[in-house]
Amino acid sequence: MFCFKHFTKEQFASQKKEREVWFIRSRKMEMSEELALMPELLLDSGGVIAGTQDGSYIFCIGEFETQDEAVQALEAMDESIRSEYSFWVDHCLSSERPK
Fold first, then answer.
1. CB 7 within 8 A of CB 34
2. What is the biggest distance separating any 2 CA atoms in the chain, rounded to whole angstroms?
3. If residue 15 lies in a helix (H) or strand (E), which one and from where to where?
4. Per DSSP, which regions of 1-99 are E strands?
5. Which residues pair with 49 in a beta bridge?
6. DSSP state, 77?
7. Are 26 and 98 in contact (CB under 8 A)?
8. Which of 46, 51, 75, 85 has the most CB atoms lying inside 10 A of its own CB?
9. What's the pLDDT tens digit per position in 18-75?
10. What gap in Å lies between CA 59 and CA 66, rounded to an integer?
11. Which whole-number Å values give the CA distances from 17 to 7, 11, 46, 52, 81, in the listed order?
């Protein structure tokens, strides 16, 4: 079972000092069984489902301080999983939704 919690921009900003966050993300998807099962498929990743600015959803892994840390984590992922879900490294401000 998965849980998706929606935070407003103000709630994100109040949690931590605003900063740039690097993460591994999937391609955009609609909310679906495929997306809902990703936390189980990638259980050890600690990943979460996040809403994007345009209303789609992505699966995000990590909250890295630098791009290099995120790239290293991406390179350590299984190639077939990376390809299937089009994972890549992205970033945004901690108070923003990903694009």
1. no
2. 37
3. helix 9-15
4. 20-25, 48-51, 57-64, 88-93
5. 59
6. S
7. no
8. 85
9. 899 999 999 999 999 999 999 998 988 899 999 999 999 999 999 999 999 999 999 9
10. 19
11. 16, 11, 22, 21, 33
